[in-house]
């Protein structure tokens, strides 16, 4: 097993803040579970297409990423883009406006975010978007209002002209939100940066059927073709749902966590 690639679009830097925006219907203040269902297929299609691209470039390395986080982050950008950029993001996310309205896209992610963060507390899930904005830059207020309304985004003023200070602010923030799991998200920031849009996700769950610690034992873990290390591995015998996808050449195993949101 080769080393794992941690894909993070949280550090993507954009300069779209002063571009056009699209009006979104604000009449959907209630929570509609069906709204999230409308975007599920698109998020799944996006995940598969992104995986294919990454796998083709990975040279046999493992790939770890969160399709929900990436698609949600790019959907935030829809609220601040126009013309070709807007169309390219929609296409990249597998959304066709002849089948789904843009308002439904944002409402779908809003409902998905609500379901994930306001469900029963059998697990811990922290997910969010934060816009680190250069001092003195004033985006359209409608853009700021919409990213707060639909994506519960936070906005922080940042001194990008002082790159080290800006890096510390962003990294300390993400480090806290991910409970120390991501210590250095950004580095070598350009002092001309206008803003950084980040997404973070932290999940800690408990198995519906736990592993018995008595069966945990030390075994070989293959880091790559040349490196093997000893690690503690859990074991459990049982009946499981699994599926082999010939197109992706991968096996999917279903193992439930406590709770229903997962």
UniProtKB/TrEMBL annotation:
| Alphabetized GO MF terms | serine-type endopeptidase inhibitor activity
Provide the alphabetized UniProt keywords: Glycoprotein, Protease inhibitor, Serine protease inhibitor, Signal
Q: Which residues form a coiled coil?
A: none
Q: Which domain of life is it from?
A: Eukaryota
Protein's UniProt keywords contain Membrane: no
Entry's Gene Ontology cellular component terms: extracellular space
Q: Which residues form the signal peptide?
A: 1-20
Q: Name one Pfam family in it.
A: Serpin
Q: Tell me the ranges covered by the Serpin domain, including all copies.
A: 48-262
Alphabetized InterPro entries for the sequence? Serpin_dom, Serpin_fam, Serpin_sf, Serpin_sf_1, Serpin_sf_2
What family does this chain come from, according to its entry?
Belongs to the serpin family.
This protein's name: Serpin domain-containing protein
Q: Species name for this entry?
A: Ophiophagus hannah (King cobra)
């Amino acid at each position: 097993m080769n080393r794992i690639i941690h894909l993070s679009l949280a550090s993507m830097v954009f300069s779209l803040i002063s571009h056009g925006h699209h009006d979104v219907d604000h009449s959907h203040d209630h929570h509609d579970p069906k709204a999230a269902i409308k975007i599920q297929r698109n998020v799944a299609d996006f995940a598969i297409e992104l995986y294919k691209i990454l796998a083709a470039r990975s040279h046999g390395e493992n790939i770890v990423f969160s399709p929900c986080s990436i698609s949600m982050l790019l959907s935030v950008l829809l609220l601040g883009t126009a013309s070709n950029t807007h169309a390219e993001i929609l296409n990249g996310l597998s959304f066709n406006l002849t089948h789904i309205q843009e308002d439904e896209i944002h409402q779908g992610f809003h409902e998905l975010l609500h379901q994930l963060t306001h469900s029963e507390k059998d697990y811990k899930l922290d997910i969010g978007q934060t816009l680190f904005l250069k001092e003195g830059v004033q985006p359209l207020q409608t853009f700021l209002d919409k990213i707060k309304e639909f994506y519960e985004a936070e906005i922080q003023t940042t001194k990008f002209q002082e790159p080290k200070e800006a890096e510390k602010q962003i990294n300390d923030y993400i480090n806290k939100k991910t409970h120390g799991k991501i210590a250095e998200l950004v580095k070598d920031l350009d002092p001309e940066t206008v803003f950084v849009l980040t997404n973070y996700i932290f999940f800690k769950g408990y198995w519906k059927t736990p592993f018995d610690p008595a069966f945990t034992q030390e075994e070989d873990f293959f880091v790559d073709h040349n490196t093997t290390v000893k690690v503690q591995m859990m074991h459990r015998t049982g009946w499981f749902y699994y599926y082999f996808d010939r197109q992706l050449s991968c096996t999917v195993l279903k193992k439930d966590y406590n709770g229903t949101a997962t």
